[in-house]
Specification:
- The protein is an alpha/beta fold.
- It has 21 helices and 18 strands.
- Strands 10-11-12-8-13-14 form a six-stranded mixed β-sheet, sandwiched between helices.
Length: 691
């Protein structure tokens, strides 16, 4: 039995997964792979698909995606072409060119992701088809028209066609210039019939325009005549076009011969592009939907963390009400491989059952699932399902009989590495007999050792789960105050149907509900009350836990805000210190400029006054040359490049650097429409806060 045939995918509505993936395909290439999607037979294959999807999602998070757009489906004719039963037309070659061109781009893109070994390996599997794509680029354009560059002979013939066409138009224009001919025409323009130039002549004047009759109008009032004077020129044009058609066939034949020699590479490139399209659809479930690439684990533990049913997740997300969904947390491992779920009708038991099966099948098929990190799916060799109460009419089976047939098939084919899902075990017949049969079924499954999830209303099966170490009870939570189901699975305690509570809530007369409670007795009622108290305590503990988590989140958020405020203050303080340095620097420069003006008047003074002048100049220059802002400016100017922006304090504006002379220590800067040369020391990296 093939791995895919051991999975009851229809019963768990796996078609929804295929629909989700089809919606996320970029091209039509991936559609056949989606239609054939099924669980892999090995953990390596499934994890490889999940790792590839995760790597593509990580790239998409940075705005990077493989350039698959432009690739089109060619497999409808490609196989027949390679088998010799289909001759491609030029449009086929154009489509193949587009696909191979996309394959070349994707190969280069994937191999270029040096930071991802997974994507680089994916790119390495795409054959190098650049030469084939370039050859097709030379032959056909994207519309399927054969290009002049396809052959020298074709280019020459097209020049002949252009010349012949021009000759035909000259002759036609000469004929139309004859007034005697024009009087016989319905319209004064030439037309074309069957590739020949014709005049639209009134039928009663047909004899006045000698030539070849090509066609008649539907009314018979107009005949289409090729004038005798045009025949020779039109023949030359027709011959040239016929030669062009033959040359195109030669070109296409040569191309097809070359393509057949590259059958392996081309076929592999098409398959790789289809697989990449599917991988990108998987990746979009991670990047856009927030799903998780849950690994296939080698052990036998099924672990679901905050998992959701894909159908419910999709519907709630589309309505913007995802937060209303109740996530599923479940672990079934080596010690406890069987879960018996009980609880009220419409409480979500079947949803839990289908969620487990569908999420497991998705992960085994390499598809991300709506679950949190830390989840894991074992490598199951089969998924055997009995869900629903439809009757097998063709086999003349009742509801109960159809359940029995499906369960018998599960027991016959399942192994210790299988996953079994049974809905409403023991239903459809007498409760006592149903309970006995259900117990026997659970005992048989326990001997097989398969991972199993069972839903039931039979009290005897709750006792089985309590008495057997390999099994565990699970209850669908029910709010006793509001008499409403909570759709949460609580593992470790049995649940009750709460049928009398639900009946009273939906309109059953109170007297009947009261009498039913009397008939039920007190034993089960007391047990339900105990479990309800446990449930109430559990809910209070859960609410307390959520409050603590919220307080922790608030504290962390307040801490982050304080850290950000502290960092901002540190940045502000450093900026103010630098601005203070800049202010001192600018004031010293102003003093130096005023002092220089005065000292110039003292140039050449006799000793000892010249020493006083030098000392005054050094007193002002020393802080400017040795201060912290000077050191920052020199470090900044060492890295300045053309087109960088610097600040010019004396103009109080930012300027663009156009040229740098490091020998003379001069910058050529652009100020508006002007160019200025300024020394290094007049330029600053620092921009004041109010600039």
């Amino acid at each position: 039995m093939r791995p895919a045939s051991r999975f009851d995918l229809d019963a768990i509505e796996f078609r929804v997964v295929r629909e989700l993936l089809v919606e996320r395909l970029v091209t039509t290439l991936g559609r056949p792979l989606v239609d054939a999607l099924a669980p892999f037979g090995s953990a390596e294959d499934a994890n490889a698909a999940l790792d590839e999807a995760a790597a593509l999602a990580a790239a998409a998070a940075h705005g990077e995606r493989p350039p698959v757009s432009g690739a089109v489906e060619v497999r409808s004719w490609l196989g027949g072409f390679f088998d010799g039963v289909h001759q491609p037309v030029t449009r086929d070659l154009a489509e193949l060119k587009r696909l191979l061109r996309a394959a070349s781009r994707c190969r280069a893109w994937l191999i270029g992701r040096s930071g991802s070994a997974v994507l680089a390996a994916t790119g390495g599997r795409i054959p190098a088809v650049d030469d084939v794509a370039e050859e097709l680029e030379r032959v056909v354009d994207d519309r399927g028209e054969v290009l002049d560059s396809a052959s020298i002979r074709l280019a020459e013939l097209r020049r002949e066609i252009d010349a012949a066409d021009a000759g035909v138009r000259v002759v036609v224009a000469r004929v139309l210039a004859d007034e005697r001919v024009r009087r016989c025409l319905q319209t004064p323009e030439a037309a074309w019939r069957h590739g020949r130039p014709v005049l639209q002549v009134r039928a009663e004047l047909r004899g006045n325009v000698p030539g070849v009759l090509h066609d008649r109008s539907a009314s018979g009032a107009t005949v289409f005549i090729e004038p005798e004077a045009v025949i020779d020129a039109a023949n030359r044009l027709a011959d040239a076009r016929a030669d062009e058609h033959r040359e195109i066939q030669v070109v296409v034949t040569d191309v097809c011969r070359a393509l057949r020699r590259l059958r392996t590479e081309i076929t592999a490139a098409v398959a790789c592009m289809a697989a990449l399209d599917l991988a990108m659809a998987r990746a979009r479930l991670i990047h856009e939907d927030g799903w998780c690439a849950v690994p296939i684990v080698t052990g036998g533990t099924l672990c679901l963390r905050r998992a959701l049913h894909p159908i419910l997740s999709r519907a709630a997300t589309s309505r913007g009400r995802r937060e209303e969904l109740v996530p599923l947390d479940l672990t079934l491992g080596e010690a406890q491989r069987m879960l018996v779920v009980t609880g009220p009708n419409t409480g979500g038991k079947t949803v839990v059952l289908k969620s487990v099966g569908l999420l497991a099948a998705m992960a085994l098929a390499g598809v991300p699932i709506p679950a949190a990190e830390g989840s894991g799916i074992p490598l199951y060799d089969g998924l055997f399902v009995d869900i629903g109460d439809e009757q097998a009419i063709q086999q003349s089976l009742s509801t109960f009989s159809s359940h029995v047939v499906r369960i018998a098939r599960c027991l016959d084919a399942a192994t210790s590495r299988s996953l079994i899902l049974i809905d409403e075990l023991g239903s459809g017949t007498d409760p006592d007999e149903g309970g006995a049969l259900g117990t026997a079924v659970l005992e048989a499954i326990e001997r097989i050792g398969a991972t199993t999830v069972v839903t039931t209303h039979i009290g005897r099966l709750k006792g089985f789960a309590h008495a057997h170490p390999a099994a565990i009870n699970g209850a669908m939570a029910f709010d006793g105050a509001s008499l409403l189901p909570l759709y949460r699975l609580d593992v470790g305690i049995p649940g009750f149907s709460h049928a009398l509570d639900v009946a009273g809530r939906v309109g059953m007369p109170a007297a009947i509900v009261t009498r039913a409670r009397e008939l039920l007795g007190t034993k089960d009622v007391r047990l339900e009350e105990v479990i309800e108290r446990v449930e109430s305590a559990r809910r209070e503990a859960e609410a307390g836990r959520r409050r603590v988590e919220q307080l922790e989140q608030d504290a962390r958020a307040a801490g982050r805000a304080a850290d950000e405020r502290r960092a901002e203050l540190d940045k502000r303080r450093a900026w103010l210190e630098e601005e203070a340095d800049a202010l001192v620097d600018s004031r010293l420069r102003a003093v130096r400029e005023r002092l220089d003006g005065a000292l110039k008047q003292l140039a050449g003074v006799p000793r000892p006054f010249d020493e006083v002048v030098r000392e005054l100049r050094d007193t002002v220059n020393r802080p400017l040359e040795q201060g912290p802002l000077r050191r920052r400016r020199l470090a900044f100017l060492a890295g300045v490049k053309k087109d960088d922006v610097v600040y010019l304090p004396r103009l109080a504006r930012r300027c663009t650097v156009r040229k740098i002379d490091r020998v003379r220590e001069i910058l050529s800067i652009e100020v508006g429409t002007m160019r200025l040369e300024v020394p290094f020391e007049d330029v600053s990296w620092f921009v004041p806060l109010d600039a």
